[in-house]
Amino acid sequence: MLGAAAVVAVVALPVAFLIGGSLRQPGLPPPRTPELIPDTFEFGNYERATELVGLGRAALNSFLVAAVSAPLSVLVASWAGFALVLLRPRARSTILAASLLALMVPLTALLVPRFALYRSLGLVDTFAPLVAPALVGTSPIYVLVFYVAFSRLPPELFDACRLEAASPFQVWSRVALPLVRPVAVAVGLLAFVLSWGNFLDPLVYLHDRDLFTLPLALRSLAQLDPTNYPLLLAGAVIATAPVVAIFLVAQRFFLHEHRGAGWLGR
Amino acid sequence: MSAVRLAGLRKDYDGVPAVRGLELEVAEGELLVVLGPSGCGKSTVLRLVAGLEEATDGRILIGDRDVTRLAPGRRNVSMVFQSYALFPHMTAAENIGFGLVVREVRRAEVCERVGRAAALAGCAHLLARRPAQLSGGERQRIALARALVREPDVFLLDEPLSNLDAELRAQTRAELKKLHARVGATMLYVTHDQVEALTLGQRIAVLRDGELQQLGTPDEIWGKPANRFVGRFVGTPAMNILDSGAVLGLETPFGAEVGVRPEHVVLGEEGVQAAVSLVELIGSEALVHLRVAGTELVARVPAETRHLPGDTVRSSARREHVHLYDAETGERLPWR
Fold this sequence. Notes:
The complex is a heterodimer. Chain A is mainly α. Chain A has 13 helices and no strands. Chain A has helices at about 1-20, 45-55, 55-85, 90-105, 110-120, 130, 140-150, 155-165, 170-180, 180-195, 200-205, 215-220, 230-255. In chain B, a hairpin with a 5-residue loop joins strand 18 (about 320-325) and strand 19. By secondary structure, chain B is an alpha+beta fold. Chain B has helices spanning about 40-50, 90-100, 105-120, 135-150, 165-185, 195-200, 220-225, 230-235; strands spanning about 5-15, 15-25, 30-35, 55-60, 65, 75-80, 155-160, 185-190, 205-210, 210-215, 240, 255-260, 265-270, 270-280, 285-290, 295-300, 310-315, 320-325, 330-335. Chain B starts with a strand and ends with a strand. The longest helix of chain B is centred in the middle third of the chain and has 18 residues, at about 165-185. Chain B is built from 8 helices and 19 strands. At the A-B interface, helix 8 and helix 9 of A face strand 6, helix 2 and helix 4 of B.
């Protein structure tokens, strides 16, 4: 109980400071000590922050990228994870080892070759480089998460499907994926958050201000002088709110499992 | 319905044989039980027929078709798994109709056939429920209906009663027998439970270490076990195996072991003197453990005989109830 309270405090306090700070009067010197509740509430900060750097447009861009990337990541990562389950053990071990190896490579190490590749394809200053990683499941970790989830399903279920002449796609879509729905929702959320908060890729690939995503727009707000930090915090609240809303909507899906009494008769 | 023939069927796992050159024929419409202890390869046989395992050698024929290299879905067999393998996110009706839906059978026909199969398996009232809302017996019926709905050539049943409690198992066993009589399907039924095998099977194939020990009717398996293993495996408590018939007052050939079932050991006025070491009462019967000339022996007698540990009795057996086995090979020997 005490531990849970500590965790809540660790998470909730910065959020409280964020919201409190976003409502502070801009133009005043920053407080010397942390200030949870400002003297006056300045709700106009949200409007000003939005107008100043085009947060609305940036949010729409971020949403477009994340709305394509997240489902695509789930789709591809779950296909790859499912394929791993169906593979013969030796091939599976090889691919798993390769995936783990890929996880070790820092993304920044690939930044220059990726930029060169997208530039040669004429895709710089488009959303394509931001969405493209989803075509390979975004991260090997998502593939591994799906692999573990699918491999935990009783093999008899897959045997029953094989006897019914179900194709691998039918087994994936009708049996495997519905049974790991909480995992799919969790991976989708992670992919959404990753895409929504992605700063480095838009910084490298997007130069046209109309294409800027939220993290880039927030970066512009960070360049204001310190007395205007309430505007930056207001922008941060605007950037955070959709993710929190999506999490609240999605949580009922990943907290519900089909397993319970009677799972496979055991 | 079609007959099934296994010709020299062999399955190795990393060079270790699980099934060794099995020759077996299941007649059309027959219910054949494959009986054996855990790890004897009986489930592997079923999975080989289903196509879920690839045979190392030999052939599998269903009717006139050689299905050895066919994919499971093209063999037209249905299987009831030990765990039932019901899809937990689907209703009973969706579970039963799954095979038809993935084969793109028309919706109206799926509904009609699901209803018919469910009625046959006695679960028509459960169609809207999900597996988690069903009892073990009800799930078993859904699994049976799923097997029935496609009207396959062969039914494969892998210990389908093992998850049920004793009362439900006995009831479902009887229902399975009636169901077989009704649909007249070719069924290959795997179990380690001898009672199931003896009550359900028209014939029984006893397996040990992947090898067929005996194939025969329940009467033959019970009355004339082909070797010492079958004799001891079928029957509870197990058949007494004695070094010679002298313990029962019988003259037996040199080099022959003697097998006698506990219910055929007679305790009375005649025979060899034996000391009662333990008495186990099981309802209307008692298992009397005896010590005769340094040999342990178990007799099954009516409970009212009320023998007590320390009592001295005389044990004997009728010659026609005594089986002779070669002491070295364990194979059955004839009385001369």
